[in-house]
Write a structure and sequence with these properties.
Blueprint: H1 3-19, E1 27-41, E2 51-53, E3 64-74, E4 77-86, E5 104-111, E6 114-122, H2 124-129, E7 154-165, E8 168-175, E9 205-213, E10 217-227, E11 233-234, E12 243-244, E13 251-263, E14 266-278, E15 287-301, E16 304-315, E17 320-332, E18 337-348, E19 371-381
Antiparallel strand pairs: 1-2, 1-3, 1-19, 3-4, 4-5, 5-6, 6-7, 7-8, 8-9, 9-10, 10-13, 11-12, 13-14, 14-15, 15-16, 16-17, 17-18, 18-19
Amino acid sequence: MNYKTIAAVSASTAALVASGPVFAQSSVTLYGIIDTGIELVTHADAAGDKVIRMPGITGSMPSRWGIRGKEDLGGGLAAIFTLEDGFNTRSGDVNQGGRLFGRQAWVGLSNQYGALTFGRQYTMSYWAITDADALGPDIYGGVGSIDAYMPNARSDNTIAYKGTYGGITAGATYSFGRDSAGTGNSPGQGTCAGSIPGNSQACRQWSALLRYDASAFGLAASYDEQRGGPGAAANIFNGAAPIALTSSGDKDTRMQLNGYFKAGQLKIGGGWLGRFVDTQSPAVADVRTNTFYLTGTYFVTPYVVLDGGVYRTLDKQQDTRATLAALRGTYVLSKRTNVYLQSGYLFNSARARYTLSQGGAGTTPAAGVGQLGVMAGIKHAF
């Protein structure tokens, strides 16, 4: 190839690039959290034995790693994606039923009006509670110790929209079948793949969110409805057998109202979570549960943080009640690393078998028996 040919090719390439759209540089970020420690849980079985272990699912936060990316497409439009894997630090295995990216796996577009995304992602139940519940997915406390779905509120086959306008955030999700892998989408749901020919409602799920955030306070409300189908179930997490939701007319619904406010170094949050399990079968009793909570976070110094909460759940139909109190102290070693010491106590009513620890299976007490948990741990973020 001579110099004239090279020059002609270069000029043609430059003209082609100039005539097409101009793309800004894309960015890809690798991130993660590694969080583990040692815990003691009393009355961890029906015999009343205690257990000392390294928990498998969560500490102060669940361990995970992920990749997120964004490409500016011009005119305020961007392509976005997230792939996120949850793993067990104790043994290095994968959580969320062994899925490679079981926490999140989605792609979409965003602009000044919000983001439209497609794939496995959080429902609006998750986004509604993030600021009101200080302990969140902590091993002791957090609404997740009463209803394990809440910190794991995800669905497969999902279209989601979420946008913020001033201080108002609105969002919604719709899933064509919340468990396409058949490994259990979130705790207590069973397996419900959906997308069944001739039954468009089986295993469907949808959720909606409306929240307002100001500089010192915020309010949120959400609705989350799961339809029944083959393999679907509703576990109330109180020791009673899960309720089979075999008909697409069966529903497992959660509604929330919550809020928070800030005053100096103090943040207070609280709210209500109502759950309604309705079946089409007259032989299966419907169940209503109500959970109320009050939590707080206080920065004693920039390096010392105290947070805790009190949680109360009531289930009239199955005659179970529980109260949980938890307290956590964190010492910040650096921007990315901290150590913590935490404890919680769970009071069960006579027929209840709620479990204090979210650290994995194997700590269910006998009916009516309370539990004490203590954990020392370390968390590193990257």
